[in-house]
Every structure is written in C-alpha cells, then in structure tokens.
Amino acid sequence: MAADGDLKPIKKLSLKENYALLTRGLGWEPTYEKKEEIFRTIDFEGIKIHDWEKWEDPFRLTMDAYWKYQGEKERKLYAIIDAFQQNNGQFNVTDARYVQALKLFLNGIVGLEYASHRGFNILGREFPGVGPRIAAQMQAIDELRHATTQIHAISHYNRFFEGMADFPHQFDRVWYLSIPKSFFEDAVSSGPFEFIVAISFAFEYVLTNLAFMPWMSGAAFNGDMSTVSFGFSAQSDEARHMTLGIEVIKFLLEQDPDNVPLVQKWIDKWFWRGYRLLALLATMMDYMLPKRVMSWSEAWTIYYEENGGALFADLARYGIRPPKYADVTIKEKQRVSHEMWSIFYSVRNAVGFPVWLPSAEEMDWFSEKYPDTFDRYYRPRFEHWRELEEKGTPFTNMTLPQLCQVCQWPCIYTEPDDPTEFVHRETEYQGETFHFCSDGCKDIFCNEPEKYVHAWLPVHQIYQGNCFPEGADPTAPDFNPLVAALQYMGIKPGVDGGLMSQHVDASRWEQWTSRPANLHEGAITQAVRKTT
Amino acid sequence: MSVDIRTNSVKPIRNTFAHLARRFGDKPASRYQEIAYDVQSEVNFHYKPLWDPDGEIYDKRRTAITMADWYALKDPRQFYYGSYTTTRAKQQDALDRQLDFAEKRDLLRQLPEEVRAQIVFALLPLRHYEWGANMNNCFISAYGYGTAITQAAIMATTDRLGMAQHISRIGLLVDGNSGESLTRGRALWIDDPAWQGLRRRIERLFVTRDWFEVMVAQNLALDGLVYPFFFQQFDKHIAASHGTGLSTLTDYLLRWHEETAKWVDATVKTAAAENEQNRAAIVGWFLAWREAGIDALKPIAERVLGDAAEAALGAVAAQLDARAAKLGLKV
Ligand SMILES: [Fe+2]
Ligand SMILES: [Fe+2]
Q1: Contact residues on chain A for B117, CB-CB shorter than 8 A
Q2: pLDDT in tens, A233-264
C-alpha cells in the first residue's frame, strides 16, 4: 500500500471544471444501432445541426446541486403554504372576486405546466447532445414542480369555494379552457425544434415576464400569500428557462443559415399564439383583480414593446425580424381585455365562475388607463348593462359564439384599425369553411391546414352532439342540449357561473368574513350589514 | 378580533378535489395524491402529433400493457416533487460527508495501483450505463401514460444523471481529480470487448419502442443484475483484501437502488396482476432481458473476479429470480 506521504495533493476543482468533469463525455456514438433509429424525430422539421457540442448547458448544475437548491426552496415554500392553511389565509384576500381569478389559474394553467413537463420529457429523450438533453430534463422536472406546487398552493381554496374541484376534468372539456389546452397541445404535437422555439423562446423568453410580473404582484397586492409564494419560488426556475430560451435560439441560428427562415416562421406563429393565450391574462388583470397592479396596456408596453423591442434589435444580426403582426397587438392593447370581459359577461351562464360589471370607481380607473377607448366604446356598454341589471333584466346571450379555428377564442375581436367592426376571416380547405379571429390566426392555419383541421372546437363539438354526459338521452322531451353540455364540461348550471352578486361564493364569503364579497359594491347579505 | 374567531370555526364545504373524492372519498388528500392522480389530459386532444401521426399526444397504445386504470401504477414512496428533492438533498448531505472523508484520507488513492485499476475497470464504464439508463427512463416519462408514471419516471431520469455524476466522483477520487479515470472508463465502454455486451444491450433499449418493456428491461432486469453485481459482489471482493473505503462510496448507489426498486416492483407487480396478457408479456420481456443481462455481465465478471465470477453471477441471478417470483413473474 502506498504510504500517506507519497501522494501529490489533490487538485482543487472550480465549479465549472467540476461540472465539466462530472458530465464529460457521458454520451457516445452508438455503433450497434443506427443513430437515425435512436433519434427519430430530429430531422423531419428541416433544422440543420452540424455540431451538438456547440450547445453547452448554460446552467452547469450538477444533480446534487440541483437537489439541494430546489429542496431548500421547497422547504421554504411548504412552510408558507402550511401556515396559510392553518390560518385560513384564503379569507385574507381582498374579496371573493379575487378567488374567481384563481379558478382560471388552477383550471387553465396547471394542465399547461403538466403538458410542458411532457414536452420537455420528449426533448430530454430525443435531442442527441448531452448538454441539451440535460437542460431539457431539468426543465421537464421543473415544470412538474410548477404543476405540483400550483395545485398545493391553491388546494386549500378548493375546500371553501366552488368551481375548482374538478380542474383536470374541466381542463379537458370546458369551452374557453380549450384556448390554453390547444395552445400547449399545438406545441407538444410539433417537432422538437418547433417545441423549443415555441415554449423556451417565444413563450418563456419573450412573454413570460408578462405573465409572471403582473400576475404575481397581483396576487401579492390582493393578499394571496400562498400563490405569491409559489410564484416567487418559481421565479429562479423561470430565470433558468429563459436562459435556455435565448441560448437555443442563438444555437439554432448559428448552426446553419438555412435555419433562419424556419425559426422566423415559428417565432411569428408562436408569438401570435402566445399573445392570444395571454388575452386570458389581460382579462384577469384588468377585470378580476380587485386591486390592480397595472393595466394590460401598461404591461404590454413595458414587457413587450420595450423589452421585446430591445431583444429583436439584438437578434437582427442573425437576420431575425420582430414577429409578424406585432403592430396589431399594439393596436389591440387598449381593447382586448374589455372585449373579452364582455364575452364572459354575456355568456356567464355557460362559464365556470361568476362575473360582475366594473364599478363606477373601476370604470374611472379604466378611463384613465385606456384614454383612447374606454369612454368611447366600453363605458356606454357597461353602463347600459348596469341599467338592465338594476331593472332586473340583465343582458345575456345564450347563443354559442363562433370560435377561431386556431386560437379558439370566440371570433369577436375587432378590426385592428376599427374597434367597432368585428374581424371576419375565413378560408376554404377541402371543401369546408374555417373561421378565424385575425389575420395572425388565419396565417397559422394556412401554413399547416392539415394540422388545424383536427382542432377540437368545443362549440362545434356541442352542436355535433359530442358533449353530452354519459347516459344523456338527447331524444328525451325535456332534454336541454346546453345544460347537458355544461354538465359534460363539469360546470354546475346554477352554481358555477352567473352573476357574482347572486353566487354562493359571495354569500358564503360574507358569512365567513363579515366583509363584502365585492369590495366596490357593498354587502349583498345581512352577514356584513350586521357588523358594519 | 371577531373575524378571527369566526374564521376559525368555519367548516370547509368539501375536503378534497372531486376527482380524488371519486377515488378515495371526500377526505383530505395527501400531497402525493393531489399531483399523482388524473392531472394528465385524457380526452379531446386537438392535433395529431407530427412525430406520431397515427397516435394521440398521450396514448395508451404505446405499450402492449393494458390497464383498466393507469393510476393503479402508483409510487409506494409517494414522492411528489417537494418530498423527492428534499429527500435527495438530505441523502446528498450525508454522502458529501463520506466523499469529504474519502478525499481527506485519500481512501482510494492510497490503494495499490492494480486495485485502483480494477476499480476503474469495473466502475467507471458504469457512468455510461447510467447515462443510458437516464435516457431510457426519460423515454418512459416522455411516452408513458398517466401522471403517476411520468412523474416517477422523470425523477428516475434525474436520479440516473445523479448516479452517473456520483460514479464520476469516485473516479476523481481514484485519479486525484485529473479525470484520467473517466477517459479510461469511456474508452472501456466504447472499445473493450468485455464491456461490449452491456453497451450493445443498452443501445438495443434505445430502439425498443414499448415503454413498459423498457421499464422491465432497464429498471428490473438489467439494474437488478448490474447493481448487486458491482455494488455488492465486486465491492465485497475489494473489501475482502483492501478494507471498506470503496464501500462507503458505493453504499449510496446500493441504497438508491433499494429505494427505487420499491417503485419498480410495485409498478411491475401491479401491471402483471392486471390480466393474463400483461403477465405473459412482462414475463417474456423479463426472461429475455435477464438472459441478455447475464450474458453481458459474464465477460466483465470473469475479468474482475476470475474464478469467483460464476458463483457471484449465480448469486446475483438467484436474487433477481427471487424478486421476480415475488412480483408474480413465475420463472
Ligand atoms: Fe412552468
Ligand atoms: Fe384566433
């Protein structure tokens, strides 16, 4: 045995050297099976990669460091969630309207996080390089984290409020939740390069701050400690994911000039797809948060026009231009949340949460934040609807709207240059007519019609009789197809939608907290009147 | 304050989510249950995947195994992301102390040169075995069906990267951080005839399309031979004449394998018990991959254990067969 003194002292390793050694050369060139049989999905999109080694993992996180870092964050997060639950923190939020926004979040977003987990699993298996596979695998497990912690952060609310209990069921069936669902399924059903451009770049890098900052500060402003803690805990994950997004784009653009037009096409498509998805967020921010952080218009100005502008100026050297129809998003920024809330209000009996009209005070805020549009187009509408409510004949619309074949929003967006004119775009494919909310969505369809004809459009499906609960008998004399469709979606007619002032969440809220369910409208039950 | 008194007496209107209440009754669900069940989409898929135009995004038909309820394949460890990462972080803290100790005492560098060479020969190519197992588990999490299986599989995926990195650290303790042992291990994996059987099988799994077969082959049959062989039999062989320095570092791998085997065993056992076709398919896969694994290990065992190879491999195979019998795979 060698004597102690004979050994040279061990060389100290820097973090970077340590990472390089631990992961060095883990992969190898297969010789017993054909490479194209092992990595079957990386060629069909036409992206050319000459050297996978040029894509270095930007994080250099070894698994032991990952476990410790993430484990510590989880420990802190669950300490807060536990305290929140013990102290019935759900009653500390501003009012019962805030909880309605959480319903959209749980029912519409958790499913996306899980789909993202699956998409990155695929990349974690299918990318031939070690660096990109590890990066994708870490994001795959991070996205699982997001789905998990969102459920855990919101789980306690479900015990006290309606409309959250069946969130996976609703995600698969509710008509407006097909907006987020189809978005992510579009990405996951694409090839791996389109997926990573769509999610890591267009969504995480270009648009995530927009989803993140206003929404998480909104939760903080409205006293929702549970969701805020989840959000801030996820922030360092997001920072890694955004880094991956920008690294990926540069890698693809540097590998081959032929990649540039493909990447540009995907940026155009996914920017527009992501923007339409965020219309849900715009609506939540402007209409559902009782205390507002900033308007959608302000958020779009800062997080897209300013930050995005700088980004695309930087990418110009690769031959990349800003996304097509970015100008339309700027024209729409003073309208989109008002138009979407109007839809939810008018079809409120087919929605999974109750709605309300903006109060006088809120309308003044809108007038200030939306000087070019609110008083001209939307204030008169809301004031008229308020009169109807007061007369006991609230405005309602029971016809199901025409949905856009691509983004799946009802086709009630207005012309970019005329807020009084609805957009109608359509095209024929294989003898059938397809409808769109915008030129952006129409372009996406026309580039890949064979993909989008398969879209599961809820309204079409309802009319075709595919959305009835098991055991329903459409020939029965008292059969009501709309009620049956709501049951199928997991929406309880008479419980889940309707007006906030008549909703069971509101009356329970007042009994439990002695505070008004709608801060701006005063009490609706004796429970509050007694104590104030 | 009156508000506090009132809120403390508030009774929830339900105890859990409706999909969990349908499974387990309306009682508070565990954090594992809240993520493991039903979160994956089941119906109304929008598009045909460009990478599998005949399938759905999530598709039960990507394996020959059938289940009335895919959520029967639950993880007995009840790992959700938070419990998984905090458990691994804690284990890693303990392991760091072992690694520290080994480094300070030069536990591996002091071993005679031929023993160090043996360790490099036997253990360092396993970095690549682990990287292959990482890819195979990622295949399961990519194409498996149901939240329960995909979340456990992505944890297994990152675990295998962690194991590859841990084996790399053992190499660095042998070579004093020069990385020579890693280079040597890689050359052995790629070129040494003794290692080719195992590499060939791992590459075969890269083109095996049935994710449940990959599960049985990688996580039950191959791991069920590789782990006990290297971290029990080989380790015992080194310890017999050179002390337990190496064992303090391989013990982690063995403990990890024992823990993960709980998930693997529960999954295989439940699927095999589901119906006769499942059992037959699993037995077929198991037997074929068990044979392949023993074949692949034979030349390595002969090189490192010489005359003792046959007995060691026999012990390992018997251990695996006993385990398989408990899972209902009569062999
Ligand atoms: Fe996420
Ligand atoms: Fe659209």
Answers
A1: none
A2: 888 888 888 888 888 899 999 999 999 999 99
Distance A219 CA to ligand 2 centre (A): 28
The verdict on residue A157 lying in a domain is yes
Tell me the H-state helices in A12-161: 15-23, 35-38, 63-86, 96-126, 130-158
Q: How far is Cα of residue B154 from the mean position of the Cα atoms in its chain?
A: 10
Q: Which residues of A touch B134 (CB under 8 A)?
A: 137
Do residue B154 and residue A140 have CB atoms under 8 angstroms apart?
yes
Is residue B181 within 8 angstroms of chain A, CB to CB?
Answer: no
Name chain B contacts of A166, Cβ cutoff 8 Å: 17-19
Domain of B262 in residue numbering reads as 77-326
* A27 inside domain: no
Rounded to whole angstroms, the Cα distance separating B119 from A393 reads: 83
Q: Which ligand is nearest to the CA of A117?
A: 1
A454: nearest CA partner in chain B: B47
Largest CA distance in chain B: 81
Dump pLDDT digits (tens) for A46-89: 999 999 888 877 778 999 999 999 999 999 999 999 999 999 99
The chain B residue lying nearest A87, using CA atoms, is: B8
Q: Looking at the 3D structure of chain A, how many domains does it have?
A: 1
Q: Is residue A55, in this structure, part of any structural domain at all?
A: no
How far apart CA B37 and CA B70 sit, in angstroms, is: 9
Q: Is residue B2 very low, low, confident or very high in pLDDT (cuts 50, 70, 90)? A: very low
Half-sphere exposure of B235 (CA within 13 A, CB side): 18
In Å, how far is B131's CA from the nearest CA of chain A?
A: 6
Interchain CB contact of B17 with A (< 8 Å): yes
Smallest Cβ distance to A191: which of B50, B150, B158?
B50
Q: How far is the CA of A410 from the centre of ligand 2 (A)?
A: 8
Output the domain CATH number for residue B288. 1.10.620.20
Query: A90, A99 in Cβ contact below 8 A?
Result: yes
> Can you give the residue range of the structural domain that contains A472?
62-290+298-501
Write out the two tokens for A357. 């009209």
Look at residue B331 in the predicted model and tell me its pLDDT.
Answer: 62
Model confidence, pTM: 0.96
Q: Which of A47-56, B47-56, B294-303 has the lowest mean pLDDT?
A: A47-56
Quick check: B112 contacting A, CB < 8 Å?
yes
Cβ–Cβ contacts within 10 Å for residue B156, how many? Answer: 22
CA dihedral B162→B167→B172→B178, nearest 10 degrees, is: -90
A255 membership: H or E segment, kind and range: helix A225-255
Q: Is residue B9 part of a domain?
A: no
Q: pLDDT digits over A388-429, tens only?
A: 999 999 999 878 889 999 999 999 899 999 989 999 999 999
* Structural domain includes residue A401: yes
Q: How far is residue B142's CA from residue B43's CA, in Å, rounded to a whole number? A: 18
Determine the residue of chain A that is closest to B28 in CA distance.
A159
Is B207 a member of any domain?
yes
Cα separation of B295 and A305, whole Å? Answer: 63
**Residue B176 in domain:** yes
In a domain, B57, yes or no: no
CB contact under 8 A, B44 and A178: yes
Residues of A in contact with B48 (CB under 8 A): 189, 451, 454
Structural domains of chain B, count: 1
Task: Name every chain B residue with its beta carbon within 8 A of the beta carbon of A187.
Answer: none
Cβ–Cβ under 8 Å, residues B98 and B248: yes
CB-side neighbour CA atoms (13 Å) of B262: 11
